[in-house]
Every structure is written in C-alpha cells, then in structure tokens.
C-alpha cells in the first residue's frame, strides 16, 4: 500500500498506529479484576512527566494497522475490550468501535479526554491531566473519573475536576506508581474524610502482569 493511502486511512481511523495488544486482567478502577483485551494506540501530546508508557507518545514508531485486523484479534480473547494509549482520542475511534460492536464486544476507553470524543463506548474512564484539560462533552459522559495523585496539590485538582462530571460518575484517586509509598497513606486519609472518593490501585503491577 502506498504511503499516501496509509495516511488517508489513518486520518479516517480505518488504520491506527498500534503499539501493542494483549490479553490480561484490568488492574484499575471499577472493572479491576476483570479479564480484558487491551488495545494500546500510539500517539500522545499531553506529555505527563510521570507517564509509564512514554514509548507510546510518538505515533510514528508504531505500525499503522487496519482496524479489521485489530478487531479480529480482539474477538479471539475476550468480550471486554479496553482501548488505551497514548491518547486514543488523538484518532477517530468510530471505525474501531463499530467493528468491535459488530462482534458483540463491550468497548471501554481510558482517556485524558483532551480531544473530541469519537466512537461508541460502554465505559469511559476519564483521567484528566493538568497540561491539557478535557473537552466539556466528555465530562458529561464519563462513567468514572480517575485522578492520578503525584503530590498533594493533585487533591485540589481532583476536587476541581469532580465538579465537572455527571452525578453518576464514580470518583477514584490513584497514586502515581513511583510515589505510591508516600501518597497511599495520604490518599487513604483523604478518602476517609471525603467518602465520595474511592481508592484505585494499579493492582496489575502488584500482580506483576501487563
């Protein structure tokens, strides 16, 4: 296929820069402990300094892959599909989710919300970042709000973000992995004083799985 043709298909969302795909256990948030197939899409300009998948940022490092192939692979493993990144909403997610839905699969996304919401989603995990705030639309549709706690100022950011989501959105505070020993006691204390929040941990890291 010509490079120009690939570029057009990527722009349409019919091909995506696929970094990796794998079957594992969801480690975070409401669906933790659930078997799920993860699709990690390359490309992100939000630029969190503590990001644990910085190799996903440069979309050019990851091969454009047709969504039909991604869907076929996903359908072999699980009925719950988690699309993550990078920042998946950098791309048009409609072709991918249409294909997954046609197979009867449940579609979940993990996103900063910094770009227009595209695709059909059964579950939206919104994890806002200070450097590039979410769009107004996604606040209304998020099923869970996950704030990463790196230092104490992030509690203020969490509260500010919580005022913007819908009333049914589940609120999570999650320690940034490298700061977990310092921040977990503070998160526990905060949640006990502010029980609208729940604690989320990266349990897959404790289990030593992807």
Automatic annotation (TrEMBL):
<dbReference type="GO" id="GO:1904047">
    <property type="term" value="F:S-adenosyl-L-methionine binding"/>
</dbReference>
<feature type="binding site">
    <location>
        <position position="40"/>
    </location>
    <ligand>
        <name>substrate</name>
    </ligand>
</feature>
<keyword id="KW-0671">Queuosine biosynthesis</keyword>
<dbReference type="GO" id="GO:0051539">
    <property type="term" value="F:4 iron, 4 sulfur cluster binding"/>
</dbReference>
<feature type="binding site">
    <location>
        <begin position="127"/>
        <end position="129"/>
    </location>
    <ligand>
        <name>S-adenosyl-L-methionine</name>
    </ligand>
</feature>
<dbReference type="InterPro" id="IPR007197">
    <property type="entry name" value="rSAM"/>
</dbReference>
<keyword id="KW-0004">4Fe-4S</keyword>
<dbReference type="GO" id="GO:0000287">
    <property type="term" value="F:magnesium ion binding"/>
</dbReference>
<feature type="domain" description="Radical SAM core">
    <location>
        <begin position="31"/>
        <end position="210"/>
    </location>
</feature>
<comment type="pathway">
    <text>Purine metabolism; 7-cyano-7-deazaguanine biosynthesis.</text>
</comment>
<keyword id="KW-0479">Metal-binding</keyword>
<feature type="binding site">
    <location>
        <begin position="50"/>
        <end position="52"/>
    </location>
    <ligand>
        <name>S-adenosyl-L-methionine</name>
    </ligand>
</feature>
<keyword id="KW-0460">Magnesium</keyword>
<protein>
    <recommendedName>
        <fullName>7-carboxy-7-deazaguanine synthase</fullName>
        <ecNumber>4.3.99.3</ecNumber>
    </recommendedName>
</protein>
<feature type="binding site">
    <location>
        <begin position="25"/>
        <end position="27"/>
    </location>
    <ligand>
        <name>substrate</name>
    </ligand>
</feature>
<feature type="binding site">
    <location>
        <position position="210"/>
    </location>
    <ligand>
        <name>substrate</name>
    </ligand>
</feature>
<feature type="binding site">
    <location>
        <position position="48"/>
    </location>
    <ligand>
        <name>[4Fe-4S] cluster</name>
    </ligand>
</feature>
<comment type="function">
    <text>Catalyzes the complex heterocyclic radical-mediated conversion of 6-carboxy-5,6,7,8-tetrahydropterin (CPH4) to 7-carboxy-7-deazaguanine (CDG), a step common to the biosynthetic pathways of all 7-deazapurine-containing compounds.</text>
</comment>
<feature type="binding site">
    <location>
        <position position="44"/>
    </location>
    <ligand>
        <name>[4Fe-4S] cluster</name>
    </ligand>
</feature>
<keyword id="KW-0949">S-adenosyl-L-methionine</keyword>
<dbReference type="GO" id="GO:0008616">
    <property type="term" value="P:tRNA queuosine(34) biosynthetic process"/>
</dbReference>
<feature type="binding site">
    <location>
        <position position="86"/>
    </location>
    <ligand>
        <name>S-adenosyl-L-methionine</name>
    </ligand>
</feature>
<comment type="subunit">
    <text>Homodimer.</text>
</comment>
<feature type="binding site">
    <location>
        <position position="84"/>
    </location>
    <ligand>
        <name>substrate</name>
    </ligand>
</feature>
<dbReference type="InterPro" id="IPR024924">
    <property type="entry name" value="7-CO-7-deazaguanine_synth-like"/>
</dbReference>
<comment type="similarity">
    <text>Belongs to the radical SAM superfamily. 7-carboxy-7-deazaguanine synthase family.</text>
</comment>
<keyword id="KW-0408">Iron</keyword>
<keyword id="KW-0411">Iron-sulfur</keyword>
<dbReference type="Pfam" id="PF04055">
    <property type="entry name" value="Radical_SAM"/>
</dbReference>
<dbReference type="GO" id="GO:0016840">
    <property type="term" value="F:carbon-nitrogen lyase activity"/>
</dbReference>
<feature type="binding site">
    <location>
        <position position="51"/>
    </location>
    <ligand>
        <name>[4Fe-4S] cluster</name>
    </ligand>
</feature>
<keyword id="KW-0456">Lyase</keyword>
<dbReference type="InterPro" id="IPR013785">
    <property type="entry name" value="Aldolase_TIM"/>
</dbReference>
<dbReference type="InterPro" id="IPR058240">
    <property type="entry name" value="rSAM_sf"/>
</dbReference>
């Amino acid at each position: 296929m010509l490079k120009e043709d690939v570029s057009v298909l990527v722009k349409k969302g019919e091909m995506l820069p696929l970094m990796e795909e794998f079957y594992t256990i969801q480690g975070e948030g409401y669906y933790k402990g659930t078997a799920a197939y993860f699709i990690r899409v390359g490309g992100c300009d939000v630029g969190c300094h503590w990001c644990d998948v910085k190799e996903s940022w440069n979309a050019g490092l990851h091969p454009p892959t047709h969504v039909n192939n991604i869907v076929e692979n996903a359908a072999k493993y699980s009925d719950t599909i988690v699309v993550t990144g990078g920042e998946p909403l950098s791309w048009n997610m409609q072709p991918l989710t249409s294909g997954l839905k046609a197979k009867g699969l449940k579609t979940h996304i993990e996103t900063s919300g910094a770009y227009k919401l595209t695709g059909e989603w059964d579950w939206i995990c919104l994890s806002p970042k200070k450097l590039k705030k979410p769009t107004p639309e996604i606040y209304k549709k998020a099923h869970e709000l996950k704030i990463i706690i790196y230092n104490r100022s992030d509690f203020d950011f969490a509260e500010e973000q919580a005022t913007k989501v819908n009333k049914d959105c589940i609120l999570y505070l999650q320690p940034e992995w490298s700061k977990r020993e310092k921040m977990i006691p503070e998160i526990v204390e905060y949640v006990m004083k502010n029980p609208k929040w729940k604690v989320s941990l990266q349990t897959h890291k404790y289990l030593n799985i992807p």
